[in-house]
């Protein structure tokens, strides 16, 4: 990682839930997704641990979509002091309200039931967060349109934009432009990617840019990965050992779009060059981040 930039994985690494990735550029701290750990008890217990970063120290939260393993930790962070804006697309904004109020309700009901039956080790059993916390988190939301660059630092050199991921309503992957001295690098965070040619979703957006050696792509590797090579048009699929799923290379090998996809993208974007296999010299560092939904 270049000097002055750090990226820490606090979930969805070797497990499929709890997506939380902390990007720090200079003094600006940006959290990519704020997901809750779900599944076995040993994972759910991670939600109760003190966060590995001070919620109040965050400057921005960017969320890719409103599944609980990507936003379900927001009320907990809000309870613990999060004040930063939570940026998301307009549809993700609306869905977040349904999802977080429902998640809070479930937490409250579980605690109530545990107290009634007396099976909790804790007396009284408490919810991870309640409806008040969910409302506190919801008030932090800010709607961001697809494809529009959002300034994240004072000079406007750290920027991000949401691009359609075709996964659920309002889902996105996030492209960040990160200053590195006089230059910039790009970081792409996939969130969960959808599939092509599904009846109820737009296809995932392609990336037009030729990426460079120092650019970083974090890509979901558990599900929907059969479309990976088409979805983001990644290059040689090198995986950094020890992070995420190991079988990235076989899924992300360069593979151009089908003729049908070319026609569809050509029609919509006025050029047929999206999602093409990138130039032979392009190389990316690809870090796998796992996710759970289909
Ligand atoms: Zn999802």
Structural description of this entry:
- The chain is α/β, with parallel strands linked by helices and 294 residues long.
- The chain is globular and about 60 Å long.
- The longest helix is centred in the middle third of the chain and has 28 residues, at 90-117.
- It contains eight helices and twelve strands.
- Helix 4 (90-117) runs antiparallel to helix 5 (131-138).
- Helix content is 23%, strand content 20%.
- It has a six-stranded mixed β-sheet. Strands 7-8-9-10-11-12 form a six-stranded mixed β-sheet, with no helix packed on it.
- Bound molecules: zinc ion.
- Zinc ion (ZN) is lined by residues 65, 67, 70, 167, 192, 291, 293.
Q: For the record, what is the CATH homologous superfamily label?
A: Ribonuclease Z/Hydroxyacylglutathione hydrolase-like
Radius of gyration: 19 Å
Strand order of the largest sheet: 1-2-3-4-5-6
CATH topology name, in short, is: Metallo-beta-lactamase, Chain A
Cofactors and ligands present?
A: zinc ion
Number of helices: 8
Oligomer classification: single chain
Total domain modules: 1
Separation of termini? Answer: 31 Å
Largest sheet properties: 6 strands, mixed
What coarse outline follows from CA principal-axis ratios?
A: globular
Structural class: alpha/beta
Unreliable stretches covering 5 or more consecutive residues? 223-258, 265-294
The assigned CATH architecture is 4-Layer Sandwich
Fraction in helix: 10-25%
| Strand residue percentage | 15-25%
Order of helices and strands: EEEHEHHEHHEEEEEEHHHE
Mean pLDDT: 78
CATH class: Alpha Beta
